[in-house]
Amino acid sequence: MPEKIREGKVQAACAVIGAVMKAMQGRADAAPVRELVLEQAGFAVE
Question: Global pTM?
Answer without folding.
Answer: 0.76
